Amino acid sequence: MPRTRTPVVAGWFSGEGDDFRLLGTRCTRCASVFFPREDSRCRNPGCAGDDLEEIPLSRRGHVWSYTDSRYRPPSPYVTDAELPWEPYALIAVELESERMVVLGQAVPGVTVADLAVGMEVEVVPGVLGEDAETTWTTWFWRPTGVRA
Amino acid sequence: MTTEVAVLGVGMHPWGKWGRGFVEYGVVAARAALADAGLDWRDIGSIVGADTVRGGYPGYVAGATFAKALGWQGARVTSVYAACASGAQAIDAARGQILAGLSDVVLVVGADAAPKGFFRPAGGDRPDDPDWLRFRVLGATNPTYFGLYARRRMAVHGDTAEDFAQVKVKNSAMGALNRYARYRKRVTADEVAASAVVSDPLRLLDICATSDGGAALVLSSLEFARRHGAADPVRIRAVSTVTPRYPHTVLDLPDIATDSAAAMEPAGQAFRASIATAAYEEAGIGPEDISLAEVYDLSTALELQWYEDLALCAQGDGAKLLREGVTALGGRVPVNVSGGLASFGEAVPAQALAQVCEVTWQLRGRAGERQVADARVGITANQGLFGHGSAVVAVR
């Protein structure tokens, strides 16, 4: 039976290929942007807005900083304890128009040696992991010079 | 009207991995603080516990847990939790009761028994909990955030891995002199460089461990202190427990993203600097008045960040301050003469109290080989998960 593709968190991203985007929300009163999304009320203390609309975040940004996980993270991160641990890089990305920093894993194969602060990256769809019924999808950051 | 409270007694249980429950560490620390104050537990009108999330239900009601273990005597009870800032919150709660005239003398206790390895969130599927999400979606342990901050400093300020290692060298030399520290061996820069990378660019010896430990304070009104014969006690002059201001534009544990500054320009200082500023303003002093500081060196690189956020130097000059020896024992503003978290490992609810224990010993001139000459004013600083500021100014 084929596995169902399910986002690891509902409503945080959508689309395929070049149309893939992180999804945030924007207050219709003060234009504050939120990721992770706020759907009930605006968190700007000077705004009483409670109407927020979904917006796609910028596809590209620049590396604010980066690091990696050389040791296996604990649960609820899902890993196969039978397999050797493969470190992955984490990238914090500054989105210019949203003026915010969003964290994400780097695409598999990109290591800290491939990264530099200020480098341009883009968001791409990825697979966080699989279990018997489900392929859990996520977002990855990928340097714009790299094609997977 | 005075806003000061007296530190009548301080006490600690040594940090380590002792394999026992947090209650025992807290009770040992509490009894030591009571003995230091020259008071019987039955003299205490109020107890404030700093909670632990790792001890089951007794950990969530730490004030009552410690009160029962010490023997019920009817004291008013308070339990507080603010992650790494729990100790400062407990001090603030005690201070508020004293200054409001609700209690003359308050016992403050925090203790933890830490598991091996990375801290992890509470169990269950909780997709509305940012702390659960960062592990589930990103596998982002605490050291990965420390790695991000360290790499950012290297890129923006030109800090090097060698600078970070020198923080460990400095702090381990102090910890070697502290009988309450878990690690009492001097560490060389070569040993730091030879330790395994945990989260690039940080290595095992750049990152603080998680420890068992307990710390306690006996706080009182100045009037109670005088009646008790403590004419010139160490006094807490300020406690800063501020939260960030929107938009909070620094990526903080456990968040996956910062606030957006697209619709609202960030005003004033960034969060960590605002924690220190609130403490300085409340105490009516400035960074030039500081004799010593105890800061949260969760990583070596974070200690350098605190130099800047405490305004001991300009932003970006933290490594320069370290290289010049300003923050070493004998320097102008020694930092983490206790040995810091580098030598203790973090025992979350006890750590901010332990910082105040060290400052108290220093201000009393009773810190032995670690003594800072002519110490008059000490500041502690830390930041708790989910937006908790924590800083205490003590004077003598």
From TrEMBL, chain B:
Q: What is this protein called?
A: Lipid-transfer protein
Q: Which residues form a coiled coil?
A: none
* Organism ancestry: Bacteria, Bacillati, Actinomycetota, Actinomycetes, Kitasatosporales
Entry's Gene Ontology molecular function annotations: acyltransferase activity, transferring groups other than amino-acyl groups
Q: Which Gene3D superfamilies match?
A: 3.40.47.10
Transmembrane annotation, as ranges: none
Q: Which InterPro entries match?
A: Thiolase, Thiolase-like, Thiolase_C_2, Thiolase_N
Q: What sequence ranges are listed for the domain Thiolase N-terminal?
A: 26-111
- Where in this chain does the record put each Thiolase C-terminal domain? 269-392
